[in-house]
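Budget justification aside, the reviewers requested a transparent look at the raw inputs and outputs of the sequence design task funded under Objective 1. We therefore reproduce one unedited record. The lines immediately below are the C-alpha cells for a 475-residue chain.
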C-alpha cells in the first residue's frame, strides 16, 4: 500500500483521540488525518475554566507520571517545563468519620502498607481492626486464579473494618465503582500479584520499603502527580497546536460506520445541517466510549457490538465551590477528604485543588470540588444544581467547619463517563480486541478498556496507531 495515499479518521476528540492523532502524525507523516468530535469543544471530559481568579477543572485535575505515557507526551511536545508538582505537605489525604477527619496513615498506599506503625497508631481504627491488620501477614494467599472483586480481596486480606474505613473510600474515590463488582485484575492487578509473590501485602510492603515510591506514600502516591501550570486543558491545546496538518472538526457527530472495498465509510451529521456527510478512510480509530463504539459498529459486527455494550459506565456530578480561607474554622492544608460509603453521606470525596497546585485560587481563597453520584448513587446526579450545592456545603460544614455561603459555585455533570471495570473485564476486553482484529484498519481506543487515567488513555491512543500502522502495511 502506498503510505502517501492513506487516510485516517479518528472519532472522538478526548485525550485518547487527540493522542492517537499525535502519534499517527509521527508514524504516518504523509497520511491525511481527520479527527471528528461531536461536541463543540476539544478534550472530552478534560475541560479547564478560568473564572473570578480561579482555575477550575471540570473533571481531571492532574495525572500520574507512572505509567509514563502522559509525562512522555509532554516531553515530546516540549512542555515538561510547564508542569507543576503538587505542593509538598505532610498529611495529604484525609478520611471522614461521623464526627471528624483523620489523615490516611502515611505508610499506606491504597492496599500496600510500608509503615505498619502508621496504621497501628491511626485513630481511625479500633483495636480489633488493628489486630486483624497485623494478622494479614499470616493469611495464606488465595489459590483462586479467577478474577476477584475489590470487596472480596480487601476483606479477605485485611478484614471488614479496614476495608470499610480506608480501602473502600480510597479506591471508591478513584473508580466511583461498586466494590462488589470492581475487578481486581482489571484495576489493581499489582496487589493480586504481590499477594501471590510475597504471600501477604504486609510482606510485599516490607520488600518495597526503601524504594522511592513508597517513602512518600499516603493514600495515593501524590508526589508522582503533575498538572500543567494553567490547568489540564493546556494538555489538549498543546497537542492540537503541535498538529497543524491534521484536520480537526468539531460539531461533527459520527452516525454510522461501514466497511467498503477501499476501507471504511464514515457517515457524519454536522451540527445545524440536515444532510449527512460521508468520508472514506483506510484506517479508523474509534476513540469513543465502548457504548458509542458498539452503536457505531452494530451493522459491521453485531457480536463485537454486543460485547462493547457490556461495558457499563457510571455518572457523577462535580460541585465546585470557591470559598474564603477564613470561612473554615481552622486552616486545612490537605489535598482531599474521602468519605467511606458506610457513613451514608452524599459526597464521595472532596478535593482541595488550591491546596494541591499553585495558581488555582486567588490569595486567601480555596477551590474545592465535591464528587457526588458514582455507580452506587447514580440517581443523585439528576438532582437540581441547588440541591447538589447544598450537599457539598453540608459536607464542608461537617469536615472542615465551613461557615456562610460560597463565593463561586459551579455544577458539572458527567453522564456515563466513568467506565466500570467489572469482574471478568480483562477477558471481555481481550475478546473485544480479538473480534476487532478481524476488521482490517479498525482500532478501538479509550478509557473503556485498559485504564481510565489520562496516561492509560494516551497509551491506548498510541498503541491503537501502532497496531493500525502494522495492519495497513500488512497487505
Ligand atoms: C470527574 C472526573 C474526574 C477525573 N479525574 C481524573 C484525574 O484526576 N486524573 C486522571 O488521570 N484521570 C481522571 N479522570 C479520568 C480521565 O479524565 C478520563 O478517563 C479521560 O479523560 C477520558 O478520555 P477519552 O478521550 O477516552 O474519553 P472522553 O474524554 O469521554 O472523550 C470521548 C469524546 O468522544 C466524543 N464523541 C462521543 N460520541 C461521538 C460521536 N458519535 N461522534 C464524534 N465524537 C463523539 C465525545 O464528545 C468526547 O469528546 C477523571 C474523569 C472524570 C469524569
Amino acid at each position: 500500500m502506498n503510505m502517501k495515499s492513506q487516510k485516517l479518521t479518528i472519532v472522538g476528540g478526548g485525550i485518547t483521540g487527540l493522542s492517537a492523532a499525535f502519534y499517527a502524525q509521527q508514524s504516518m507523516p504523509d497520511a491525511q488525518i481527520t479527527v471528528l468530535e461531536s461536541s463543540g469543544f476539544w478534550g472530552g471530559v478534560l475541560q479547564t475554566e478560568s473564572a473570578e481568579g480561579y482555575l477550575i477543572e471540570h473533571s481531571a485535575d492532574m495525572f500520574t507520571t507512572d505509567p509514563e505515557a502522559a509525562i512522555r507526551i509532554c516531553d515530546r511536545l516540549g512542555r515538561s517545563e510547564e508542569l507543576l508538582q503538587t505542593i509538598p505537605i505532610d498529611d495529604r489525604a484525609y478520611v471522614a468519620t461521623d464526627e471528624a477527619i483523620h489523615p490516611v496513615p502515611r505508610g499506606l498506599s491504597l492496599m500496600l502498607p510500608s509503615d505498619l506503625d502508621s496504621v497501628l497508631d491511626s485513630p481511625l481504627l479500633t483495636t480489633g481492626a488493628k489486630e486483624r491488620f497485623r494478622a494479614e501477614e499470616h493469611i495464606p494467599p488465595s489459590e483462586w486464579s479467577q478474577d476477584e472483586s475489590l470487596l472480596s480481596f480487601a476483606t479477605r486480606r485485611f478484614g471488614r473494618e479496614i476495608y470499610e474505613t480506608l480501602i473502600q473510600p480510597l479506591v471508591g474515590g478513584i473508580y466511583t465503582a461498586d466494590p462488589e463488582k470492581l475487578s481486581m485484575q482489571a484495576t489493581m492487578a499489582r496487589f493480586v500479584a504481590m499477594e501471590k509473590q510475597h504471600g501477604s501485602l504486609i510482606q510485599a510492603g516490607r520488600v518495597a520499603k526503601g524504594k522511592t515510591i513508597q517513602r512518600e506514600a499516603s493514600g495515593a502516591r501524590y508526589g508522582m502527580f503533575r498538572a500543567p501550570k494553567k490547568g489540564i486543558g493546556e494538555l489538549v491545546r498543546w497537542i492540537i497546536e503541535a498538529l497543524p496538518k491534521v484536520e480537526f472538526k468539531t460539531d461533527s457527530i459520527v452516525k454510522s460506520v461501514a466497511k467498503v472495498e477501499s476501507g471504511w465509510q464514515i457517515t457524519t451529521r454536522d451540527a445545524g445541517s440536515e444532510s449527512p456527510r460521508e468520508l472514506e478512510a483506510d484506517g479508523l480509530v474509534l476513540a469513543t466510549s465502548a457504548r458509542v463504539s458498539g452503536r457505531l459498529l452494530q451493522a459491521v459486527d453485531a457480536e463485537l457490538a454486543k460485547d462493547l455494550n457490556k461495558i457499563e459506565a457510571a455518572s457523577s456530578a462535580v460541585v465546585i465551590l470557591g470559598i474564603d480561607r477564613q470561612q473554615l474554622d481552622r486552616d486545612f492544608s490537605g489535598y482531599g477528604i474521602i468519605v467511606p460509603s458506610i457513613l451514608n453521606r452524599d459526597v464521595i470525596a472532596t478535593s482541595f485543588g488550591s491546596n494541591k497546585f499553585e495558581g488555582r485560587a486567588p490569595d486567601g481563597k480555596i477551590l474545592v470540588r465535591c464528587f457526588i453520584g458514582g455507580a452506587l448513587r447514580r440517581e443523585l446526579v439528576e438532582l437540581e444544581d441547588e440541591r447538589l450545592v447544598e450537599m457539598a456545603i453540608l459536607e464542608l460544614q461537617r469536615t472542615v467547619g465551613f461557615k456562610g455561603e460560597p463565593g463561586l459555585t459551579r455544577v458539572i455533570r458527567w453522564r456515563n463517563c466513568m467506565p466500570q471495570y467489572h469482574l471478568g473485564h480483562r477477558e471481555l476486553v481481550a475478546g473485544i480486541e480479538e473480534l476487532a482484529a478481524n476488521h482490517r484498519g479498525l482500532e478501538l481506543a479509550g478509557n473503556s478498556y485498559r485504564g481510565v487515567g489520562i496516561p492509560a488513555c494516551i497509551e491506548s491512543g498510541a498503541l491503537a496507531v501502532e497496531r493500525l500502522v502494522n495492519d495497513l502495511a500488512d497487505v
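Residues 454-473 form the longest helix (20 residues). The first strand starts at residue 7 and ends at 11. Computational costs for records of this kind are itemized in the attached budget.
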